[in-house]
Every structure is written in structure tokens, then in C-alpha cells.
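Structure in, sequence out. Go:
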């Protein structure tokens, strides 16, 4: 059960100094990607000639996002040299043990997510970080978790704007399709005198009298742009191989999109796979969370076309999130069949994700030009990665 408020997390961290500076990231979609981009840009700064010319120390930084992908601790990462690495398992478990002991000793009754957050912050402090990138700029906002955040864009934006702090700079995604969101964010920033920083572009051509520092900054700017362009975030429009598990050597699209906005964006990517004449069939392997605001038909509608196949599965228990459950795969198939779209194959596989993947790969080999898309849940993306990891061992 989720109970809103900061009382429990404040008690958990009451004896933990937090000297590191935080970059908070809130929103509905894209939070994890934005956090990853920020981490990679900090790494780019550490590699840069600008930093070396200025004789500045490397920035020690970490990242905390949720949910985890494969293991509970992979949501906590820190930079080692100029690469992000998952915190060592032994460090995570020892720190978590101390946090859980504090929770029990002081009868705080913190939730699993609060315990995980406190563990991450404790790790950041013990590692003497300069900056912590924390998933909580404001990204694209959509209607998700409405039972907690409200049923309109304005109400949701107001809750997410709670991360804005007095006098602390803010940037946000300029969402043109929902001006009420921008109004709420700007109004809150003005109330708290938080300066707003909007995207800007360095000039393409530099004057001849440009200083060495400015040229180095332009080079750093270009490198940061390339980081954003080239970075692949696991489980988000990720191209993977299932060869270790099924022997199939074709490219497979894995995407954890799970709400209306994310699915609509995924639908655009899938349409590009269908070819210019939109004739290539898609074989979907999908799992969908059992959530009041998540209608299966709304998830499937932007994706399914005549001739496609859908193999529905169910992800298993999610570590640290006992309230998260999948929709029954038989329900997903029933709704797909009732959609009115003429589908090739509809089959429910329950929790046998490996068998569903094998079926999808056999079908792809038989249907030339078809593509496999695994989607509907980040928890499914994590299970696929675990299956591949185990198959490679």
C-alpha cells in the first residue's frame, strides 16, 4: 500500500547527513532516460578538455531510479572513472540492512520504496558523492497513477511540481499539447523564486576572436549532444538479441512503455518497422500491469494491425513491490480478440515467458519480413534480461 508524505523517509534519514547536491527528475514518461542522460553528460564533463584546462576535479556522482531492471540494487549506480556502474551487491545489502534495522528499532513502518530510497541516499553519503541524480528538470507529464496524483493534467503537474525548491534552478519539458501543465509549473516556480532555465543553442559558427575556454565549452556541448543522441537506455526502445535463449539471430525491439503516452510513442517506432507500405507483420510478446487506470484496450489499440500476432505473458513477483501484479494473460488475449483487428495468432502463455519468446522466434523465422516486439511493462523487460543473463552463463 502506498501512503503519501515525507514523514517516514525523513525519520529514516534523520541521522544521515546529505551533503551532496541533488538533481531531481519528475514526470510521467522519460524520467529514467533523462536521469541516464544527465549521468552520461556528467561523465562527458569529467572526460572533457575544459575540465582539465580549468584544473577542476572530476565530479563524483550517482544515480537512483525506479523500478530496478534486473536486480533490486541495479537502480543505484555510481560513476567509476567515466562509466556508470551498479553498486556492488555486498555494499547494497550491508547498507540496506542498516536502514531496515533503523526502521525496525524506531518503529517507522516505512514502505519498501522508502527503504530503498533511504538505502540509495545512505550509499551516496557514504561514497562522498558530489551530485546525486534522483528520479522523482520536469519531463513530459501524462495521466498515470491518477489515484494518487489527481485526474487532470493540472492536478498531476501540481503534485510533480512539488520538487521545485526556493531559489533552486528549474528546467522542464515544453509540452505544447498541454499548456495547463506549463502554467502550473511556471506559477509554482515564480512563487518560490526558482529561476527557470529553458533550452538554448550555442551558435553554430564561432567568431574568430573566440577564446580557448569558449571553444572548449563548444566541444563539451557537442560531446554532450552526442551522448544524448547515442545513449541506449536498457528497456527503452532497446534492440536486443534472443540468440542465447532461442537461437534466433534477428534483431528484437524491447520497450517497457506501459501507459498511454509511452505506448503511442512506441506505436510510431513500430510503424517504422512495418515498412513504407506498412505491410510487415509484428509479433508482440506483451505483459500488462493490473492497474485501475491502465485499460488493456488502450494499450493494444495503438499497436495492433491486421496480420499481427500477440503472445500474452505475465511477469512474476517484483522484488520490493508486492503490490505490483500482472493482468492475466488470458484477459489480455480475450480483449485483443474482441478488438475487431484480424490477428494472425493470439495465445496466452501465463508466466512461461521463455516459451512465448521461443514461439515468437519460430514465427519470425517462418514469416519473412516480420519483427518481434516485446512490450507493455518494464517488469517484463527486466524478466527478459534475466532470462538472457541466465542463458549466457
Amino acid at each position: 500500500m502506498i501512503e503519501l508524505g515525507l514523514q517516514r523517509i525523513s525519520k529514516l534519514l534523520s541521522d544521515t547527513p546529505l551533503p551532496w547536491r541533488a538533481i531531481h527528475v519528475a514526470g510521467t514518461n522519460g524520467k529514467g532516460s533523462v536521469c541516464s542522460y544527465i549521468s552520461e553528460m556528467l561523465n562527458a564533463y569529467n572526460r572533457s578538455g575544459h575540465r582539465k584546462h580549468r584544473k577542476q576535479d572530476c565530479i563524483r556522482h550517482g544515480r537512483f531510479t525506479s523500478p530496478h531492471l534486473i536486480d533490486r540494487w541495479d537502480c543505484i549506480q555510481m560513476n567509476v572513472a567515466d562509466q556508470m556502474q551498479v553498486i556492488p551487491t555486498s555494499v547494497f545489502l550491508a547498507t540496506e540492512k542498516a536502514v531496515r534495522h533503523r526502521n525496525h528499532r524506531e518503529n517507522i513502518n516505512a514502505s519498501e520504496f522508502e527503504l530503498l530510497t533511504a538505502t540509495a541516499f545512505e550509499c551516496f553519503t557514504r561514497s562522498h558523492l558530489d551530485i546525486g541524480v534522483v528520479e522523482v528538470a520536469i519531463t513530459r507529464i501524462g495521466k498515470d497513477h491518477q489515484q494518487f496524483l489527481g485526474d487532470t493534467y493540472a492536478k498531476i503537474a501540481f503534485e510533480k511540481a512539488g520538487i521545485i525548491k526556493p531559489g533552486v534552478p528549474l528546467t522542464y519539458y515544453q509540452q505544447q499539447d498541454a499548456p495547463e501543465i506549463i502554467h502550473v509549473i511556471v506559477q509554482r516556480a515564480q512563487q518560490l523564486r526558482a529561476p527557470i532555465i529553458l533550452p538554448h543553442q550555442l551558435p553554430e559558427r564561432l567568431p574568430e576572436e573566440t577564446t580557448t575556454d569558449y571553444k572548449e565549452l563548444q566541444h563539451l556541448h557537442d560531446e554532450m549532444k552526442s551522448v544524448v543522441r547515442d545513449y541506449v537506455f536498457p528497456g527503452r526502445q532497446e534492440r536486443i538479441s534472443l540468440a542465447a535463449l532461442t537461437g534466433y539471430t534477428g534483431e528484437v525491439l524491447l520497450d517497457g512503455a506501459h501507459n498511454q503516452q509511452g505506448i503511442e510513442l512506441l506505436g510510431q517506432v513500430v510503424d517504422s518497422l512495418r515498412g513504407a507500405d506498412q505491410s510487415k507483420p509484428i509479433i508482440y510478446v506483451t505483459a500488462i500491469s493490473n492497474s485501475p487506470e491502465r485499460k488493456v484496450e488502450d494499450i493494444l489499440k495503438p499497436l495492433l494491425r491486421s496480420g499481427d500476432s500477440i503472445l500474452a505473458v505475465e511477469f512474476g513477483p517484483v522484488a520490493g513491490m508486492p503490490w505490483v501484479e500482472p493482468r492475466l494473460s488470458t484477459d489480455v488475449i480475450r480483449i485483443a480478440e474482441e478488438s475487431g483487428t484480424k490477428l494472425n495468432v493470439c495465445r496466452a502463455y501465463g508466466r512461461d515467458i521463455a516459451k512465448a519468446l521461443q514461439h515468437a522466434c519460430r514465427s519470425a523465422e517462418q514469416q519473412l519480413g516480420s519483427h518481434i516486439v516485446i512490450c507493455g511493462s518494464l517488469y517484463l523487460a527486466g524478466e527478459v534480461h534475466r532470462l538472457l543473463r541466465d542463458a549466457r552463463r
